[in-house]
Each structure stands twice: as structure tokens, then as C-alpha cells.
Amino acid sequence: MLSWIPAWTRQDGAVAIKKAAEAGFDLLEISLPEDLDVDVAALREQLLATGLEARFSVLLPASCHVPLHPERALTHLKAAIDLVSRAGGDFLGGVFYGSIGVFSGAARTPRETETITGVLRQAASFATDRGITLALEPVNRYETYLVTSAAEAVEFIREVATPGLALMLDTFHMNIEESNFYDPLLAGGSHLKYVHLSGSDRGLPGEDHIPWDEFFRGLADIGYQGDLVLESFTSQAPGLAGKTSLWRRSPYAPDELAAASLRFMRRKAGQYGLN
């Protein structure tokens, strides 16, 4: 979605769906707006017209930072889960443990861990009852202090011990927080259900310094069966430069970036038997 538009609206969403289908993608990840205002009927109609599948992701607003506002966070997550269910989806990924950009000035405390675990357990149970998998995404230290590595996310998943809670990884964040691109995949193992592929500079995968062969070898070695989802951006897409901190002009227009990235993803997936 973020290859073309900065935020979901009915009109811009229709553009992203059309562009993704034309580029040859199998599915589109829809990043839900903060107010969760989505015309579900229109969305289902648009997806049906193109044959695209949808996956969904959500970020908690600052007013729902889990350690400070667990009840609000759970209410927001339940509303997002209900939206996904009404849209016919079965997956919701995101940063469910806190709000991006909200910091305490210290490392996560045992009390915060307990609070997050409780919210995740209730949200995962709620999602499971609706046939939806929640996938927890660790992000880098400049966005959160709560869960920044695959190992930390897996600790929460094991503690929650609910089948509806899984792991998602993003190569951009891994490039900052992980010591390599192989061991975190093995640590995630069967918990890993969803992957964001992004260049180290958020640009075109394969034109960066991420060791992609190491990464795809890890996916192959754990028998990965989940989605491979592009999350690269270009400042040439209107409204995305500020949203994604792309302060230098990107070399690719949105359609070029998406098409070239998809070719790279399919080539690597085929090379390692992930098709």
C-alpha cells in the first residue's frame, strides 16, 4: 500500500488496490487508519473486482500506549479485529505492545511486561474466536523501547501461549536490531507467519546491503509458508516523504519501485523454493 499512498482512504485505497493488481501482486497489506474509518463494503467490492487478497496491519495511537493505557489499547485492538473480520480477513499484524514514538526514557520494566502480556493474551483470544491471527512486529529502537528484536517478540508469544498470536519480521528493523539475518528466523521458527521485505534504506531490495541470500536461506530452513510482503517506499509518491522520513529524492517512481521489487522477491523466493 505504502508504495503508492501514505494513508488509507476509500478513494486512495482504490488507487492502491488497482496499482497493486496491475503490478502483479497477489495481495495488498492495508494499513488501517488510526480512527479505523474504513468503508468495509466498498473495500470488499474493490478487492473482489481485482482478485487481490488483503492482509491488514494496525498501529496503536499514542492515547493507546499499552503500558499507560491498557484498557484503551485493548478496546482499540478489538475494534481493529472486528473490522478485519467484517472485511473477510484472517490476519492482523502490527505493533500491539505500544505506540510508535512513545518512550519512557528507560528500558521495559517487569510491570510493563506484565501489562503488555495481559493485553496481548486477551486480544489474541478475541482474534482467535474470529478466525484471525495476530502477528507481533518488533521495530527498531528509534520507534519503541518495548520490543525491538525477534527474540523479545518470541518471549511474549510463548508467555501468552495462545495459538492466535504469531510473529512478523521486517528486514528494515532487523538491519538495525539483529546481529544477522539467519538466526532470528530460526529463533522465530514456526511462530513466524509474515515477513516485510524492505531495503536497508527503505528502497529497492537487492540494491542495498542486506544479505538477502542469508535471509532467504533462513526462511527456507524453517520451512516458511507465510506471506512475503513488500514494504519499501519512494519519496516520489505524494505525501510519503514526511511520513517515512525520506528526505532525499528516491531514484524510483512508485510503479517502478513496486515492479522491480516484485521481480526481486519472486526471483529469490524461486531460488530458495519458497514459491
Summarize this entry quickly.
This protein is α/β, with parallel strands linked by helices and 275 residues long. It is built from ten helices and seven strands.
Order of helices and strands: HEHEHEHEHEHHEHEHH
What is the overall number of helices? 10
> Strand tally, please?
7
State the low-pLDDT regions, or none.
none
What's the CATH class label?
A: Alpha Beta
The residue fraction in helices comes out at 40-55%
Euclidean distance between termini CA atoms: 22 Å
Biggest sheet: strand arrangement: 1-2-3-4-5-6-7
Domain count: 1
For the CA atoms, what is the radius of gyration?
18 Å
Strand content: 5-15%
CATH architecture: Alpha-Beta Barrel
Topology:
Elements (H helix, E strand, L loop, with lengths): L9 H14 L3 E5 L8 H11 L2 E7 L10 H17 L4 E5 L14 H19 L4 E4 L13 H11 L4 E6 H7 L5 H6 L3 E6 L14 H10 L5 E4 L9 H5 L9 H18 L4
Parallel strand pairs: 1-2, 2-3, 3-4, 4-5, 5-6, 6-7
Helix pairs in contact: 1-2, 3-4
Characterization of this structure:
This protein has 275 residues and is of the alpha/beta class. The protein has a single domain (22-271), classed as Divalent-metal-dependent TIM barrel enzymes (TIM Barrel), CATH 3.20.20. Helices cover 43% and strands 13% of the residues. The protein is built from 10 helices and 7 strands. It has helices at residues 10-23, 40-50, 70-86, 110-128, 150-160, 171-177, 183-188, 212-221, 240-244, 254-271, and strands at residues 27-31, 53-59, 91-95, 133-136, 165-170, 192-197, 227-230. A 7-stranded parallel β-sheet has the order 1-2-3-4-5-6-7. Helix 2 (40-50) links the parallel strand 1 (27-31) and strand 2. Helix 1 (10-23) packs parallel to helix 2 and helix 3 packs parallel to helix 4 (110-128). The protein is globular, with a radius of gyration of 18 Å. The model has no long low-confidence stretch (mean pLDDT 95).
